[in-house]
């Protein structure tokens, strides 16, 4: 740990539910579809240094490693419980990927380290202050021209999607999810210094619209 541990929302809203996370995703989302699309946007290339922010139970890192085993992956999360779950899966699948924990403040990496940072279903669990500070940290640890890919709940694409998303809000809270519903994630990315920010796609699920956002750290950045 590099700093005092901040409070956080566990993967499924409550600590005691974390063991059911994979099951819940399998039943409520088209998991293969939304994760494969995430990997298509990530497009991991040989030799790239790639960070997953909020690796959870490790599903995305396993998929990324399958897509291209010649990129170098690292995961960062705040919850030791998900690290244990992910580690067990990696051991079972004979995968070696470094998984780091931190306290929710400064990321434990130097400036300009990663070619790509990606994150899935994390930002809707962060309050406004944490959204901003985590995006600033992501920008800091990305190399100039480095790419950020966020997959998370976005502005619902229909009334039905809006209605279904209340189930997520009941579990994860209305305060942290409100900015997602308003479609404000791209605005936060721009405020953190990213350029070419755009929503590039979405997948409708049983519990809301999962949206993909991309951005790039400028070539000449203040960091
Ligand atoms: C809903 S899970 C998503 C897991 C995985 N990325 C996925 O796509 O299934 C959210 C993850 O974000 C992590 N998380 C919550 N707050 C965090 C923070 N401040 N910094 C890093 N990770 C955080 C949780 O521990 C959890 O593993």
From TrEMBL:
InterPro entries: Methyltransf_11, Methyltransf_Superfamily, SAM-dependent_MTases_sf. It comes from the Bacteria. Pfam families: Methyltransf_11 (PF08241). CDD domains: AdoMet_MTases. Keywords: Methyltransferase, Transferase. GO terms for molecular function: S-adenosylmethionine-dependent methyltransferase activity. Residues 51-150 form the Methyltransferase type domain. One of its GO terms (biological process) is methylation. This is Methyltransferase family protein. It comes from Flagellimonas meridianipacifica. The lineage of its organism: Bacteria, Pseudomonadati, Bacteroidota, Flavobacteriia, Flavobacteriales.
